[in-house]
Amino acid sequence: MKPVALLSLLAASALGKRVVHNWDIGYVQANPDGQNQRRVIGVNGKWPPPAIEVDQYDILAINVHNSLDEATSVHAHGFHQRDTPFMDGVPGVTECGIAPNGSFTYEYNVTQSGTYWLHSHYQEQYIDGLRSPLIVRAQKEPHHYDHDVTMMLEAWYHRNSKEVADQLLSTSQSIREAPFRPYMLVNSRGGTDPDVTKLRFEPGKTYRLRILNVSATAMIRFGIEEHEMRVIEVDGTATEPKRTNSIQLSVGQRASVLVTAKSSRAANYMYRADIFTDIQSGVDRAVLPFSSVVEYAPNAPLRNVSDAQSTLDWDFFDDIDLVPIDRQPMPGVNKWVPLEMHTGLYDDRREHITFNNRTYETPIVPSLISAITTGYQAFYPDVYGFKSQPVILDPNTDVEIALFNRDNNTHTIHLHGHSFFIYRRGSVDGDKTKYRTAGDFPVRRDTVAVPPREFVLLRIRADNPGVWFLHCHQAYHNLQGLAATFIEAPYFAQQFEIPEQVLRNCQKMGIPAKGNAMGRNGLDLLDEQRGPFPLEGL
């Protein structure tokens, strides 16, 4: 183990406790909204997988056994994995995956605090239910509240993930564009009975609602009738309170809001968690309404039942206005990484979504293993394969990532290994009157929504050696090719040893554990497949 990692581990051990969970990942049957039973992926024979809560500076160990008939993994969404890149749980990037009947122990040094979640990063397994909240209580909580409530929101499909994937990757336009709809789940329960999704408030108490969007594809807007919310955290960054009566969360994003309850039990109120469908090109965006109840008393009258009576304005909540409590200064710019997002028809007759017209495809050898085993050639992008879209970052370089969305639907970009500063938003048409620029201390997130025909400028400092995935968290956009790989400080990454459990699972899956993207020496990639490519004019 690298000395700095050992010191970090010892420091965390001195302050926190060791928390151990055993997860046997396997198939179970579930009917979460009472409308459709299907096969899902659960833990220890049950579904949903258990939520995990820890304290900041604990060590969290999850002993995973894979009882599926395919590989799996567990990713702690939002954890930076500083000094522990092999714990990031991304097959093809940081590991080979956990082989069927294989095991892996994910051990996290919990140095961050806030609202996170765990999910599989193998294919689209989390859409089939392998996801759960991961809550980290801060050692020094800057805000006061009486109750801490987790609300995991999810646009759930009655079809399994592979059926949806086959549709979206079809060579037939009519099949690709056939609408399919999701159904809202709140903490893995849904349907028309508000008793299973209600919130219970006590008069005068202040509630921290930790709201997570763990959907496959959909943005969700949330608000409580006649109740003001104060945003105090986004994606693990504690912020100064910002007042609003509604908030939007795209896929993978999280927010904590404080809500102070009414002073009496005279009435109950609606809360709304509406789904925006925003995935298929050629299909108009739709709003699928969902509502349930904030209950003060079982028999109290319910206010604001109809849309016409609603007090929610649904103004767009702009995260660029948030100010983090710690007021970290934003890095400058030593390297510019422009990434243009575009949907088009490619020469395989399928619709792909790409950065810079290059479709991502998982390399044979995980990119982190290539970085560690290829010596000085780890500095050459070609080593990682054309289709991994590698970006080499020198140590401690200040980087600006420029995301340009040329599409008519939103893309939600998640960066592993970092929380980025959101510096500027604007329109891709170049109209500077539409620019929105952060203040002196921009908010930091790990997942950012880039609306249609807009751009976002992000800043990071490349101070976390390893290989980090950048991808659209609308899961099927990722599948269609919208991803890239950041190779960060490869010389320092070579100080890490490949864990034995990584090598063991690679061997079980027949994947080479050294060499370039194809498992060969150096730049031997002569027969590498580089397509598909965009059709001319599309």
Tally of alpha and pi helices: 7
Strand content: 35-45%
The overall strand count is 34
> Structural class from helices and strands?
mainly beta
What does this protein structure show overall?
With about 550 residues, the protein is mainly beta. It contains 7 helices and 34 strands. The strands form 6 sheets. A 7-stranded mixed sheet has the order 11-10-9-13-18-15-16, with no helix packed on it. Strands 12, 14, 17, 19, 20, 21 and 22 form a 7-stranded mixed sheet that branches. Strands 23, 24, 26, 28, 29, 30 and 32 form a 7-stranded mixed sheet that branches. The protein is globular and about 75 Å long.
Short synopsis of the structure:
The protein has 538 residues and is mainly β. It has seven helices and 34 strands.
Layout of helices and strands:
Layout: H1 3-15, E1 18-30, E2 38-43, E3 52-55, E4 59-66, E5 75-77, E6 103-109, E7 114-119, E8 131-137, E9 147-156, H2 161-168, H3 173-176, E10 183-186, E11 189-190, E12 199-200, E13 206-213, E14 219-224, E15 229-234, E16 237-244, E17 247-249, E18 254-260, E19 268-277, E20 286-288, E21 291-295, E22 302-303, E23 335-345, E24 351-355, H4 367-373, E25 390-393, E26 398-405, E27 411-415, E28 420-427, E29 436-437, E30 444-445, E31 447-450, E32 454-461, E33 466-472, H5 475-479, E34 483-488, H6 490-493, H7 500-508
Parallel strand pairs: 1-4, 3-8, 9-13, 12-21, 19-22, 23-26, 25-34
Antiparallel strand pairs: 1-2, 4-6, 5-7, 7-8, 9-10, 10-11, 13-18, 14-17, 14-19, 15-16, 15-18, 19-20, 19-21, 23-24, 26-32, 27-31, 27-33, 28-29, 28-30, 28-32, 33-34
